[in-house]
Design brief:
The radius of gyration is 38 Å and the shape is elongated. Helix content is about 20%, strand content about 35%. Strands 5, 6, 7, 8 and 9 form a five-stranded antiparallel sheet that branches. It is α+β, with helices and mostly antiparallel strands.
């Protein structure tokens, strides 16, 4: 019988030789050991191949502008993290790549920009480029409290722009269309950060966003409401709270038709008009409602003038110039003439009374079909009136 030496087998190293006499059973065990060692070596080789294939399978590729933007944002160690897709085609002629924490999108009309984090999650909810291609990277707001991305809908007429704003207090919300345009006009987040997406009103007529001033102790909330008839209208403060108490747009006042305004120069009165009335605010009275019946003329702020109240009359000339004359005003005082239509829209004119307290002022205003309501005051107070002001009588003039 042949002498065969063996030793303990290793996974991948050479077999060590030991001087040992083996019987036939030992020989069988030795050959089994060689086979087992061969299998172990092959297993390691296969594992290495599989690891190589796996690493190759996840080696995603981007290039050009998207690669440059990724590097500018810190590459794999930056805000986007590592690649999670190859560069691919987006809708409407764009390109994109997906990363661990966000996206980079490119389009000839918008450039190359990154979207990530909570804003990226919200953008994905609104179907990515359907909401618009990014036209900014995620950027900090001037007050240092929030983050935002702007977008452009390159596939729509006019290429409208949209936005997503985020703060740690409010979360991420979308804003677009006419409401976004009005919000921008009011100073963006200085009017408040959005605390809702744009939503439909329960009656199906309007749209709205709510906002919050997170930089104030009171955390005041405000809103912008839109309807096809009124356009976007902001509402805030004590007047908004009072309107909410009455049931918002489903209440007796309907939708706001214009922004809050000062009743006249120097007046403490703030007022906002609605489809079926108005809400007035003053430091002494707070917010008070002033409803009117649908289709009726707005009542005079002082339905029964006091004994000392001034009196006016109105004549109509051929050229649609209205002659407003009056007496009983304080001499040589500023007089405010108010003209309201049936929708309770107001226009104010200013003149000065003469030495005898009379006025004679030509008002040029289009005379559309309906009724115009004229009244005036010289800034005297009247505590029995809702506005706190002593008003003249109201003169109603029909326009044909």
């Amino acid at each position: 019988m042949k002498n065969i030496s063996s030793g303990p087998n290793t996974m991948c190293g050479p077999l060590k030789q030991h001087n040992r006499s083996l019987n036939e059973d030992d020989l069988i065990q030795r050959k089994r050991g060689q086979i087992v060692g061969l299998i172990h070596w092959r297993c390691l080789s296969i594992l290495a191949v599989l690891l190589l294939l796996a690493s190759t399978a996840y080696a995603f590729a981007v290039s050009g502008a998207i690669m440059d933007k990724w590097k500018a944002l810190g590459g794999e160690g930056g805000v986007l993290g590592g690649l999670r897709s190859d560069e691919g085609s987006a809708q409407f002629g764009g390109q994109f790549a997906r990363f661990a924490y966000g996206f980079i999108y490119s389009h000839p009309e918008t450039g190359v920009h990154g979207v990530w984090g909570k804003i990226g999650e919200k953008w994905a909810q609104f179907n990515f480029e359907d909401f618009g291609f990014p036209i900014t990277d995620e950027t900090g707001t001037p007050d240092g409290k929030g983050r935002y991305n702007h977008f452009r809908q390159v596939n729509l007429p006019g290429k409208p722009e949209t936005s997503i704003y985020w703060t740690g207090e409010t979360g991420a919300y979308v804003i677009y269309g006419a409401i976004r345009a009005k919000w921008a006009e009011l100073g963006w987040e200085r009017f408040g950060y959005p605390i809702t997406d744009e939503l439909a009103t329960p009656d199906g007529v309007g749209r709205f966003n709510h906002f919050r001033l997170i930089n104030t102790p009171e955390k005041w909330e405000s809103s912008i409401y839109w309807t096809p008839q009124t356009g976007p209208v902001p509402i805030y403060g004590a007047i908004r709270l009072k309107w909410a108490e009455t049931g918002w747009e489903r209440g007796p006042f309907g939708y706001p038709t214009g922004p809050e305004y000062q009743e006249y120069n120097g007046s403490p009165i703030r007022r906002q008009d609605f489809q079926r009335g108005s809400i007035w605010w003053s430091p002494s009275t707070g917010a008070q409602t002033h409803p009117i019946a649908t289709g009726s003329a707005p009542p005079s702020p002082s339905p029964v003038p006091a004994a000392s109240a001034p009196v006016i009359s109105v004549s109509v000339a051929q050229n649609k110039t209205f002659g407003v004359t009056g007496q009983g005003f304080l001499p040589n005082k500023t007089v405010h003439i108010r003209v309201a239509d049936d929708a309770f829209h107001n226009i104010f004119y200013t003149t000065t009374s003469n030495n005898s307290g009379a006025i004679n002022y030509p008002v040029q205003i289009p005379c559309n079909p309906g009724v115009l309501h004229f009244s005036a005051n010289d800034e005297r107070t009247n505590r029995s009136d809702l506005t706190g002001t002593l008003w003249s009588n109201t003169v109603n003039v029909s326009c044909q």
